[in-house]
Write a structure and sequence with these properties.
The chain is of the alpha/beta class. The two termini are about 25 Å apart. Strand 18, helix 23 and strand 19 form a beta-alpha-beta unit. About 45% of the residues lie in helices and about 15% in strands. It holds the Pfam family Phosphorylase.
């Protein structure tokens, strides 16, 4: 939303809340004029659409006021570039932040419509893969909550992350058609369209003053069309814009080819162009897939830069003020090509001198790193870059040459060091290191937990950190409490409000006011009653979706996240099998009832991860059908994990599994969501678990396993684990059972690849941490038996989680990286 409007100071803070009758009238009007139905013929989807449009009107009023205020006050703008925005459903988000949920509920009830039923009708906008995209969504909400003038920029994928089905235990992928029935939250901005070039050649033009100007002549052009979604902050005091780009061909059809009878070929250019925004993360296992991924990244980075520069020049006469008025945050390496694109725009189009342009670029950009896995730091083959983005490859070469010249001037002449510092990786085929490009083109580079930021300095950016000291800073991730407490867990929110008052709703740090109450037996019982009700709801979901009945009084032990070997769902499954074996061998022991809950998607081409999903389902099939357990152990894998399913699972969890190999999880945010909702964490000293331990206290978290330093030492001695397995009778028995086909009787060798990897190449330290994990799970059992101790620890997790608010994280970005002011919400 760009247009500035004339008018006096916005008065949203003093806006009178609309009455139930007014909201009911607005919904009926939208049903008639926005949907074209009346109450007699309206379907559930019609009612959802009408309600969303009525709520949207309330958001739009504040949106226009916020935009007007930004232009009037000439605020510095923050632009958040992310290939993912896992925003989920928006109806309850908007109603909650505008404090109108109860009003809408009553208005609909008067029309015979159940608001909670409408929640299930809204599609889940799965425009992200996991933590990266969900973090971007939380940050957008917090920037609005803190009245930071911000835009989020991404891609409007026709099909987001795939819809997961489980058939015979195997993951199957289907398109997630979230736009099929329309999207009431977005505003098409067909007039906001930018040409995005690919291929072609670069022409050197000699100017009269003797300088050489370069002009890129693309062979192909795709149009980027803007679609805007307003993102409301808490209490509606500010609304920002999420602008997503859709790819369109300049010409929808080659009419000459169509008239010749080549009806398919006539649309080939359109199909190629629109493939850019068709699917989130197309497989890059083929050269064509790699090219499409790079096209996506450049497409949205270029469109976003063209848009923000156009906006800047509309308001400011000089482009040189860009770093003073604009902050661009690169969310991971996906948008890193924006560094070269901004240099092209400044130097080639606006005739800015190179050195000045580079200072402007570095002063404007900052970069968030999300991974210590070298293979996850994107690199692109130089031939691909030269063919697809020839001018950008020239610019990257020049950036690199000047950077290495500067290093030599500083006395860095060691060839190996210069090779490590280079943007171009010469080993095994020349590739462009996008992490290096983002690092050099940014004035700040941040990690997302204290441990991760420290490790960045000695691992992936060791050499760059040495020659550019002080550039790396830490900004520990956070979550928005509006989504992950107030909306997801209204019962707990009410209890907290009744116990400590409403101040925590605006200032999450006030949750510590709860600490004195956590030892009170009456409060503990109320806290437990809220948890019990949430578990009953989740038990109904499990019964509906899987036809598996689980006991709400059992320990709900939950691991929900992307399926990956380093996240170690496999370690969790091994412990499950070990307990299963023990329960059958010792049926008279007083076993506590436990439900193991898994959910998550594996990348479509990640065979090992998909095999782990199959194993979880095979173990569930055997365990759940074994009458000797008498229902005391259940295993469930809930399919198609997304934001909405997380909102149902997290408030019901007793134990949160955060068991990644130490040193491999940058931060995690699921750990924070679980802790906020009163789950105890079992985890390694990895990512933000380290800081969570510091905040909640050693007695209220279960830590196990090798530390980051110990993992490194272990790997140095080799990752053959035969000796480790031989020392653990329990582990050996479990691996033998899995490897011999106990859980795959029709295909005994099915899990040989998993067992072989654990035995001979256990890079992720599953076997090394098994005994510690197994023993710590027994400590979990012991604490679970002491209900008062468990409940107090659970409440203390909630009480000490305020620091992990994304409001705190964004405030730190604002002060230390973006240089913008914040305006916290007020009740």
């Amino acid at each position: 939303m760009d247009q500035a409007t004339n008018g006096s100071t916005p008065a949203s803070a003093g806006r009178a809340a609309r009455t139930v009758d007014e909201i009911r009238e607005a919904i009926v009007e939208k049903l008639k004029y926005g949907v074209g139905k009346n109450a007699i013929t309206a379907s559930a989807h019609d009612w959802f659409f009408a309600t969303a449009l009525a709520v949207r009107d309330e958001v739009v009023d504040r949106w226009i006021e916020s935009t007007t205020r930004t232009y009037r006050d000439d605020d510095k703008r923050v632009y958040y570039l992310s290939l993912e925005f896992l925003i989920g459903r928006l109806l309850f988000d908007a109603m909650g932040n505008l404090e109108m949920t109860d009003t809408v509920r009553e208005a609909l009830a008067g029309l015979g419509v159940d608001l909670d039923m409408l929640k299930t009708v809204e599609p889940d906008a799965a425009l992200g893969n996991g933590g990266l995209g969900r973090l971007a969504a939380c940050f957008m909400e917090s920037m609005a909550t803190l009245s930071i003038a911000a835009y989020g920029y991404g891609i409007r994928y026709d099909h987001g992350l795939f819809r997961q089905r489980i058939k015979d235990g195997w993951q199957l992928e289907y398109p997630e058609d979230w736009l099929a029935a329309g999207n009431p939250w977005e505003f098409p901005r067909l007039e906001v369209a930018y040409p995005i070039g690919f291929g072609g050649w670069v022409e050197a033009l000699n100017e009269r003053d003797g300088t050489v100007r370069h002009e890129w002549r693309p062979a192909e052009t795709v149009m980027a069309i803007a679609y805007d979604t307003p993102i409301a902050g808490w209490r509606g005091q500010h609304v920002n814009t999420l602008r997503l780009w859709s790819a369109k061909a300049p010409d929808p059809l080659r009419l000459d080819a169509f008239n010749r009878g080549d009806h398919v070929g006539a649309a080939a250019a359109r199909v190629k162009a629109e493939a850019i925004s068709k699917v989130l993360y197309p497989s890059d296992a083929t050269p064509a897939g790699q090219e499409l991924r790079l096209r996506q990244e450049f497409f949205f980075a270029s469109a976003s830069l063209q848009d923000l520069i156009r906006r800047h020049l509309n308001q400011h006469p000089k482009l040189e003020t860009l770093p003073d008025k604009v902050a661009i945050q690169l969310n991971d390496t996906h948008p890193a090509i924006a560094v070269a694109e901004l240099m092209r725009i400044l130097v080639d189009i606006h005739d800015v001198e190179w050195e000045t342009a580079w200072k402007m670029t570095v002063g404007t950009f900052s970069y968030t790193n999300h991974t210590l896995l070298p293979e996850a730091l994107e690199t692109w083959p130089v031939p691909l870059m030269e063919r697809l983005l020839p001018r950008h490859m020239q610019i990257i070469y020049l950036i690199n040459a000047l950077h290495l010249d500067e290093m030599k001037e500083k006395g860095e002449v060691d060839g190996a060091l210069l090779s490590a510092l280079s943007i171009i990786d010469e080993a095994g085929g020349r590739r462009v290191r996008m992490g290096h490009l983002a690092y050099l083109g940014s004035h700040r580079v941040n990690g997302v937990s204290a441990l991760h930021s420290d490790l960045m300095k000695v691992t992936v950016f060791n050499d760059l950190n040495r020659v550019y000291p002080g550039r790396i800073v830490n900004k520990t991730n956070g979550i928005t409490f509006r989504r992950w407490l107030y909306q997801s867990n209204p019962g707990l929110t009410r209890l907290l409000t009744e116990t400590i008052g409403p101040a925590f709703l605006d200032d999450a740090s006030r949750l510590t006011d709860l600490i004195p109450h956590t030892s009170d037996m009456a409060f503990q019982q109320q806290f437990a009653a809220v948890k019990r009700a949430n578990k009953e709801r989740l038990a109904r979901v499990i019964l509906d979706r899987l036809e598996i009945k689980v006991d709400p009084d059992a320990l709900f032990d939950v691991q929900i996240k992307r399926i990956h070997e380093y996240k170690r769902q496999l370690l969790n499954i091994l412990e499950t099998v070990a307990v299963y074996d023990a329960m059958r061998a010792q049926p008279t022991r007083d076993w506590i009832p436990r439900v193991k809950i898994f959910a998550g998607k594996a990348a479509a081409s990640y065979a090992q991860a998909k095999l782990i999903i199959k194993l979880a389902n095979d173990v569930a099939k055997v365990v759940n059908s074994d009458p000797t357990l008498r229902g005391k152990l259940k295993v469930v894998f809930l399919p198609n994990y997304n934001v909405s399913l997380a909102e149902q699972i997290i408030p019901a969890a007793d134990l949160s599994e955060q068991i990644s190999t130490a040193g491999m999880e940058a931060s995690g945010t699921g750990n924070m969501k679980f802790g906020l909702n009163g789950a105890l964490t079992i985890g390694t000293l990895d990512g933000a678990n380290v800081e969570m331990k510091e905040h909640v206290g050693d007695d209220n978290i279960f830590i196990f396993g090798l530390t980051t330093e110990e993992v490194a030492k272990h790997r140095a001695f080799g990752i053959d684990s035969r000796e480790t397995i031989a020392k653990s009778a329990i582990l050996a028995e479990v691996l033998d059972a899995i490897g011999s086909g106990v859980f795959s009787p029709g295909e005994p060798d099915r899990y040989k690849p998993l067992v072989d990897a654990l035995t001979y190449h256990d890079y992720f330290m599953v076997t090394a941490d098994f005994e510690s994990y197994y023993a710590t799970q027994r400590a979990v059992f012991r604490k679970w038996r002491d209900k008062a101790a468990w409940r107090q620890s659970a409440a203390l997790n909630t009480a000490n989680m305020g620091w992990f608010s994304s409001d705190r994280t964004i405030s730190e970005y604002a002060e230390d990286i973006w240089n913008v002011s914040v305006r916290p919400p007020h009740g």
